[in-house]
Amino acid sequence: MLNPEDLKKKTFTKGFRGYEVEEVDKFLAKLIKEYEYLYLDNLEQKETIERVSSKLEYYQQMEATMQSTLAVAQETADEVKNASEKKAALLEKETAVKCEQQLSEAKAAAQKLHDDTMAHAEDLYNQTKNKTDNMLQAAMAECNKLREEAKAYAEKLRSSAEVDADKLRITTEDVCKKRANSAASEANKLLEDARSEAGRMMLDANTKYRKLVGDAEERSRKIIFEADAKAAMAEQAYNEQVKKAALHRKNMLHLLETQVELLKNYASHNEE
Fold this sequence. Notes:
This protein has helices at about 5-10, 20-155, 160-270. By secondary structure, the chain is mostly helical. The protein has two domains: about 1-50; about 95-270, Helix Hairpins (Orthogonal Bundle), CATH 1.10.287. Helix 2 packs antiparallel against helix 3 (about 160-270). The radius of gyration is 59 Å and the shape is rod-shaped. The two termini are about 25 Å apart.
């Protein structure tokens, strides 16, 4: 392509009856001036097109990078969500197992306490009953012994003191009755004390059982509440990340669309 300097340096051979030299020079000067303006404008347009093409390529690369970044962000958000869901499910499962284990342990401990209390109460009752039976047998044996002694003594003295023998027999029987009544009263008192002690121990065992079960249920509810709270926090964090990524993507796409529209308008204006 010719440049303005080529036109300025161009010379023509003069011939016979040729064009007017001065008129041709003036026309060439005007032509060179206009051609120089068009040439420089063309160079400027080329540079502008190159800059616009470079910017367009840059923005296209930026768009591709943003698309890749958004894809990575979406993938990361999905991974975070999946990890949160898995963690929440695992935590819920572990919580349920832990609660069930604690509840079973509490029930087993309460049942053992109840069984031990019942066994102890039964042993105490049996011991008291055996002791009472032994006391009654001893009292009866002593009464029989006294009766036999009184009978023998009365038989010995009957010939000489019938009245004294009867009196002694009556006195001996009264003593035997009193001792028997005393032994029976003491035995009844021991039985009542044993029953009261057994009832009190059973009441304490039931109270401790209900308390253990209540504590286990309270701990279970607390663990479940904490697990639900952690799962809700994880889900909220995931939703916030998704919203931020979507907003960032929307803003970048809007910026790219604006830049592309400006470039198109600029290119259209240059073509005109």
